[in-house]
Design brief:
The chain has helices spanning 56-59, 123-131, 162-170, 175-202, 208-234, 255-271, 298-302, 308-334, 391-400, and strands at residues 10-13, 16-19, 44-49, 84-88, 90-91, 140-143, 277-281, 336-337, 340-341, 346-351, 367-371, 378-381, 388-389, 407-408, 411-412. Helix 3 packs parallel to helix 6 (255-271), helix 4 (175-202) runs antiparallel to helix 5 and helix 6 packs parallel to helix 8. The longest helix is centred in the middle third of the chain and has 28 residues, at 175-202. It starts with 9 loop residues before the first strand and ends in a 7-residue tail after the last strand. The protein is α/β, with parallel strands linked by helices. 32% of the residues lie in helices and 13% in strands.
Length: 419
């Protein structure tokens, strides 16, 4: 039996190296393009951002290392203690701008509130380039706010309703609708070919600044082409069948209900290996969350100014959010996969772009990393004034996922203490 060729195999000669195109010989034995992966130990990534953060005094533990005392919020996940690591004293260098920092949660691009701000590729989209090759969808972007940004800094549209995400993953149309979709995919590729050809013809007749803009455009077109090619390769493969019912409709104020539904769709997506990279952006709306004891808008409560009554109501929302996250981890852990389970094979990053929403502070962010094969059960406490760069954690996560990288967003080196 022949050993598959490495995707990194190069043609070398007369001082020139050229990468080979994707070949059947690079695939695992017995697999062809467009067929679901048969990887024995798939690695996965899920990022969750709660844009209004948490009350720090309730979220962060006391003590450090493995002997830390569980915080009031996280105590709901006490039985999962050995499945996650709590991290304090971290932030993205140069990321300011209060609520605008949400745009940089997975990119670490500095000064997101500036008029001249240009975003960079997000961690999930970087990982999707490698982890997404074998699944129907390279990645999924879910929730009220998109956390995902392309290589040229364009926001990836988010699927806001859990029911829409479920339909995308598991519901197929009629034969006529499928045939129509195939024609549209083919037409889309033809349009891409024409547009790209016309744009390339312009390169020699424009200024240097315009050539830079055209190169960004080419990057976007190439990414679109890759998505179209992948969609075509999977168009003849039936979507997986699941016993679960599609999520129902949620009141726009019910952020906890929607969050729980998103988590269940994510679990199903991972369990069916429909994707291995997911980013979920939470809500920061101003509506009154339907929780007993809450009668003020969520966003207004986050600007509590140390008002005890407002903080008490915000605590109710925070606790419900943490409980939904803990239940998500339990469901992943109870979902067996071979000799392991989904949680052991999935990195689940929970955090916020704000360390203190009341003051719009973007330092000392609340961060928890669960699952993914790390040795957990500890509190990593870095300096709360001179924060450890959060991109170091991203580098550690990339390396654990098999993505060779020593830097991210201008920061180098993995995070000390992540094992």
């Amino acid at each position: 039996m022949m050993k598959p060729l490495s995707r990194r195999t190069l043609l070398r000669g007369v001082g020139v190296s050229m990468a080979l195109p994707a070949l059947e010989a690079m695939l695992p034995v017995g697999r062809s393009f467009g067929v679901a992966a048969a990887s024995a130990n798939p690695k996965r990534f899920v990022a969750i951002n709660i844009p209004l953060g948490f009350l720090g005094e309730k979220f962060f533990p006391s003590g450090v290392g493995k002997d830390y005392q569980m915080s009031s919020y996280l105590s709901v996940a006490e039985e999962l203690r050995d499945d996650f690591t709590v991290i304090s004293g971290t932030s993205h260098p140069g990321v300011d701008g209060g609520h605008s920092a949400e745009k940089s949660f997975l990119t670490a691009a500095p000064h997101p509130g500036a008029r001249s701000f240009k975003n960079s590729i997000s961690l999930d989209q970087l990982l999707a380039r490698q982890l997404g090759e074998e699944t129907r969808y390279a990645s999924l972007t879910l929730g009220d706010q998109s956390l995902s940004w392309s290589a040229n800094g364009v926001s990836v549209p988010s699927i806001r309703r859990p029911a829409d995400a479920f339909a995308k993953l598991f519901l197929s149309g009629s034969k006529q609708e499928v045939a129509t979709q195939k024609r549209e995919l083919s037409d889309g590729r033809s349009i891409m070919d024409t547009v790209l050809g016309d744009a390339k013809a312009m390169q020699g007749r424009v200024s240097a600044a315009d050539r830079d803009k055209l190169e960004q455009y080419f990057t976007a077109v190439r990414e679109t082409e890759r998505r179209l090619e992948k969609a075509q390769s999977w168009s003849g493969t039936p979507k997986p069948s699941v016993e679960a019912q599609p999520p129902g409709a949620f009141d726009s104020a019910d952020l906890i209900g929607a969050l729980g539904a998103h988590f269940e769709v994510i679990r199903l997506a991972l369990q069916t290996d429909s994707t291995r990279v997911i980013a979920l952006g939470g809500s920061n709306h101003s509506q009154v969350v339907p929780i007993k004891g809450v009668d003020q808008g969520y966003h207004s409560l986050s600007h509590h100014g140390k008002n005890p009554q407002m903080m008490a109501q915000l605590e109710l929302i925070d606790r419900a959010t943490i409980e939904a996250w803990a239940d998500f981890l339990r469901r992943l852990k109870s979902s067996g996969e071979g000799e392991s389970n989904l949680l052991d094979r999935t990195q689940v990053l929970l955090g916020s772009n704000l360390g203190n929403a009341s003051g719009h502070l973007t330092t000392n962010l609340p961060i928890v990393l669960a699952g993914g094969g790390f040795a957990h059960g500890r509190h990593l406490a870095f300096d709360q004034k001179n924060n450890e760069p959060l991109p170091k954690l991203f580098i550690s996560m990339m390396q654990k996922l098999g993505v060779e990288s020593e830097s991210f967003a201008g920061t180098s080196g993995a995070m000390l203490g992540i094992e």
